[in-house]
Inverse folding.
């Protein structure tokens, strides 16, 4: 689904309060009472029996910066879609900001995405011929925010990503790195607690990609939870936590050792382990390659 489609789906509705969350008495959705994302025994099976996710368990804690890393066909894109509520699992439980996704209808999911999740894609999905300011402001268009306020917030978001001097520039006047920064500004203009970035540096050269990663790290520093989907093991290794996937399963979940000296990996569910799980070969079939 493109960024434009995501934003159009995110029509403003009242928050689905009262929806069961973690099940903890007195815990209201979004008050910090649990991880910002929880996947419990989540599987996603497509027609024909193709299993893109297999019994996945994952907690993403508030304020984390992590990579979900794996080769093509490992299930990481399906993981993004499930976490971002763009797809529902075949089985298992998904909680986002303490909301139990299975209990929400499509309108309530749209409200959840609008208020709590920002999306950044490899392709920038900027409107051609439209200034950066309005490309970002359009991220609030379906949330009932007035035009003047939308543009004020958009200017602040562009300043946060280092583009306060490019407000009137159109996409064809921006470099690839600048376009991705505009896309990031659009994703965070509504101050969502969770930012999902799908291969955010994949279409950029090394220097521009490094600049985009600096922006994502800055957002993490001020409290945004940032989840980066990538096949780039070097990029993943530079982040505080790496979740490695292969054939629809989490095979390792690692965090940087104290002082950043190396990575401590823990095997997941007995699959993989500390011995090179990030670089293990995939046994993916051609049929699974798009998952």
């Amino acid at each position: 689904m493109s960024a434009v489609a995501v934003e159009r789906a995110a029509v403003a509705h009242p928050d689905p309060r009262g929806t069961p969350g973690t099940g903890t008495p007195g815990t209201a959705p979004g008050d910090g009472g649990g991880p910002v994302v929880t996947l419990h025994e989540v599987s996603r099976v497509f027609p024909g029996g193709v299993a893109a996710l297999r019994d996945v368990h994952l907690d993403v804690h508030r304020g984390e910066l992590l990579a979900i890393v794996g080769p093509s066909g490992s299930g990481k894109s399906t993981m993004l879609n499930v976490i971002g509520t763009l797809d529902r699992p075949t089985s298992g439980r998904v909680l986002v900001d303490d909301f139990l996704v299975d209990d929400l209808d499509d309108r309530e999911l749209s409200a959840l995405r609008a208020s709590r999740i920002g999306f950044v894609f490899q392709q920038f999905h900027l409107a051609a011929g439209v200034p950066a300011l309005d490309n970002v402001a359009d991220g609030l268009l379906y949330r009932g925010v007035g035009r003047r306020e939308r543009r004020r917030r958009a200017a602040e978001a562009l300043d946060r990503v280092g583009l306060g001097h490019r407000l009137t520039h159109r996409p064809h006047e921006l470099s690839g790195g600048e376009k991705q920064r505009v896309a990031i500004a659009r994703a965070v203009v509504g101050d969502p607690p969770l930012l999902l970035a799908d291969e955010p540096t994949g279409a950029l050269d090394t220097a521009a990609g490094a600049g985009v990663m600096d922006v994502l790290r800055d957002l993490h520093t001020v409290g945004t939870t940032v989840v980066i989907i990538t096949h780039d093991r070097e990029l993943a290794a530079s982040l505080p936590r790496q979740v490695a996937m292969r054939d629809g399963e989490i095979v390792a979940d690692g965090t940087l050792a104290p002082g950043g000296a190396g990575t401590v990996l823990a095997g997941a569910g007995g699959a993989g382990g500390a011995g090179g799980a990030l670089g293990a070969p995939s046994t993916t079939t051609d049929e699974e390659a798009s998952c």
Notes: Confidence is low (pLDDT under 50) at residues 1-28, 269-277, 279-290.
